[in-house]
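Please decode residue identities from the backbone states below.
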């Protein structure tokens, strides 16, 4: 009988100890969660700053080429090759380096039409398209190059578009970054003054920047009695930087 009571008492003691241990573990987990929540709170003054500069593009990229159509593939290829060689020579004569010329498209397609009598598509010829991009580093000469290419390729010439970009925008980003930092500082100082506190040093800085797209313009020009020179105006590109900064409060 005594052995049974001793066994029951031992089990009760073990359960009691396990319960206390469980309470301790629960307290420890609760303490960790509380500490995590406190450390994850944002402290200080958080602001965003914007900086933008305008830049004149220094690179013009022409998409141009030749499109020839003939009764046979061979004839269409011969016409396209002859005209394209003249176009490439015109580019070279205007100082466009071989490394700045890249093939973008070369295709041979059937030209068809619907025959109502036969009620089917019939082949009327073949079209060869040979397009390249030419990077022009002297934008002021872009108009003259377009005119020379058009003369060289004749009626087979195709000028799809002209794109403008900045080859090395690093200096513009530095200027925009300085403006963004000054903008953020001014906002933080105003907030600190309104709150009646002293502004400390930055504790967090994050940057995001906007890369200006290479924007495209179609090329339109009119031919009058005498050849009218094509005028190209690149305009400006806007480069912007955004900063998110957290300042400590003294």
């Amino acid at each position: 009988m005594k052995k049974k009571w001793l066994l029951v008492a031992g089990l009760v003691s073990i359960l009691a100890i396990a319960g206390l241990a469980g309470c301790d573990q629960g307290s420890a987990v609760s303490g960790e969660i509380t500490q995590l929540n406190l450390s994850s709170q944002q402290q200080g003054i958080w602001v965003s700053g914007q900086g933008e500069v305008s830049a004149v593009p220094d690179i013009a990229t022409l998409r141009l080429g030749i499109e020839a159509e003939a009764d046979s593939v061979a004839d269409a290829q011969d016409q396209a090759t002859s005209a394209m060689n003249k176009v490439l020579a015109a580019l070279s004569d205007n100082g466009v380096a071989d490394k700045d010329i890249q093939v973008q498209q070369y295709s041979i397609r059937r030209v068809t039409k619907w025959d109502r009598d036969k009620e089917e598509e019939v082949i009327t010829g073949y079209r060869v398209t040979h397009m390249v991009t030419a990077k022009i580093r002297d934008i002021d000469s872009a108009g003259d190059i377009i005119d020379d290419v058009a003369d060289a390729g004749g009626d087979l010439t195709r000028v799809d578009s002209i794109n403008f970009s900045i080859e090395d925008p690093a200096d513009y980003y530095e200027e925009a970054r300085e403006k963004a930092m000054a903008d953020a500082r001014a906002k933080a100082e105003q907030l600190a003054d309104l709150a009646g506190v002293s502004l400390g040093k930055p504790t967090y800085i994050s940057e995001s920047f906007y890369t200006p797209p290479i924007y495209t313009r179609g090329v339109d020009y009119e031919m009058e009695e005498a050849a009218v020179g094509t005028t190209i105006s690149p305009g400006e590109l806007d480069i912007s930087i955004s900063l998110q900064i957290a300042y400590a409060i003294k």
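Observation: Residues 173 and 239 are 7 Å apart (CA to CA).
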